[in-house]
Amino acid sequence: MPTLAVFYGIIIRMYSEKGGRHHLPHLHAECGDEEAVVALETGEILEGSIPKNKMKLVAAWMEIHKDELVENWNLLYNGEEFFKIEPLR
Predict the structure, then answer these.
(1) Are 19 and 78 in contact (CB under 8 A)?
(2) How far apart are CA 17 and CA 34, in angstroms?
(3) Residue 65 near residue 54, CB atoms below 8 Å
(4) Verdict on whether the full-model pTM lies above 0.85
(5) Is 36 within 8 Å of 42 (Cβ atoms)?
(6) How confident is the model over 39-64, as a mean pLDDT?
(7) Do 28 and 1 touch, CB atoms closer than 8 A?
(8) Which of 25, 43, 46, 59 could form a disulfide with 37, with the two C-beta atoms 3.0–4.6 Å apart?
């Protein structure tokens, strides 16, 4: 699964699941052994969990990079190459 960014111990990954089980644009936020699947449009956690303080960082990062996330989703959905997104600093 392509890695878009890594910051504060959080790995952000994305892949397009044509006909997949989530049926909407989303990303995977991994922190240690935990993972949350998060909807791009709403920031809603669709599945799993990560620590609350880490999820706040993910939500802030998603807000800053919303357009880039949607663009990456579209690229991956169409079988094209994704691009890295600037991490939180």
Answers:
(1) no
(2) 20
(3) no
(4) yes
(5) no
(6) 97
(7) yes
(8) 46
pLDDT in tens, 65-86: 999 999 999 999 899 999 999 9
d(CA 30, CA 47): 12
Rounded to whole angstroms, the Cα distance separating 65 from 83 reads: 12
Sheet with 10-13, side-by-side order of all strands: 3-7, 10-13, 26-31, 34-39, 45-48
Dihedral (C-alpha) 88, 32, 50, 84: value to the nearest 10 degrees? 40
78-87: Cβ within 8 A, 24+ apart: 82/2, 82/4, 82/14, 84/3, 84/4, 84/5, 85/4, 85/5, 85/12, 86/5, 87/5, 87/6, 87/7, 87/61
Give pLDDT, residue 15. 82
* Share above pLDDT 70 across residues of the chain, in percent, rounded to a whole number: 91
Asked whether the predicted pLDDT for residue 60 surpasses 80, the reply is yes
